Amino acid sequence: MVCACHGVSAAAIRACGARDLAGVGAATAAGTGCGSCRPEIAALLARQPEDA
Fold first, then answer.
1. Model confidence, pTM
2. Mean pLDDT, residues 7-29
């Protein structure tokens, strides 16, 4: 569980297709509560391979 406020898992964040924190928030609500998960979300996004 990455975002406890909204119950969003790392898998859901990876699957949402967003490329930035704002996109993740819009797609899953992760990072829009207390905000403590935002650094972890950013790290997940940084590890995502870019689409060619």
1. 0.90
2. 97
